[in-house]
Amino acid sequence: MIIRKDQTDAFHQQMAQSFEDRMVAHLTQAFPAKAHGLGDAKLREEIQYGTTRAKQYNIESERDVASFIGLTFLVRRDFDTNPETLWARPILTDKSSSAENRLRRLGLAARRHLDAAGHRA
């Protein structure tokens, strides 16, 4: 059996759409005010943006990308590059650590950061 490029492209597009749909549902439940404030189209743009940003740090599994996107909602959209969140950069760029471990460490650091700033995570 030969699988053509257009078939694999269609499969990858379907998987990306499925992930996006699941992320919309998750973010709407986890961050209802923010998600509803964005609306569906902008929420999907944020998911796509987060997916692209995550890949820049070799974060590629669905679970890890979902965690990265969650951090963009929890902390800020540009938490990985913003001067106000410099604590994130060394964790993200730690090549000795797996994506899963880096995201776990980012989650802990984000909660400490938010607690120190007086926000509830």
Topology overview:
Layout: H1 5-30, H2 32-55, H3 62-74, H4 88-92, H5 99-116
Helix pairs in contact: 1-2, 2-3, 3-5
Shape: globular
Total DSSP helices: 5
The rounded Rg comes to 16 Å
Number of domains: 1
Q: Can you walk through the features of this model?
A:
- This protein has one domain.
- The protein is 71% helix and 0% strand.
- The protein has helices at residues 5-30, 32-55, 62-74, 88-92, 99-116.
- Helix 1 packs antiparallel against helix 2 (32-55) and helix 2 (32-55) crosses helix 3.
- The longest helix has 26 residues, at 5-30.
- The model has no long low-confidence stretch (mean pLDDT 91).
What is shown here, in short?
This protein has 121 residues and is an all-alpha fold.
Describe this protein with a few key phrases:
mainly alpha, globular, single chain, 121 residues
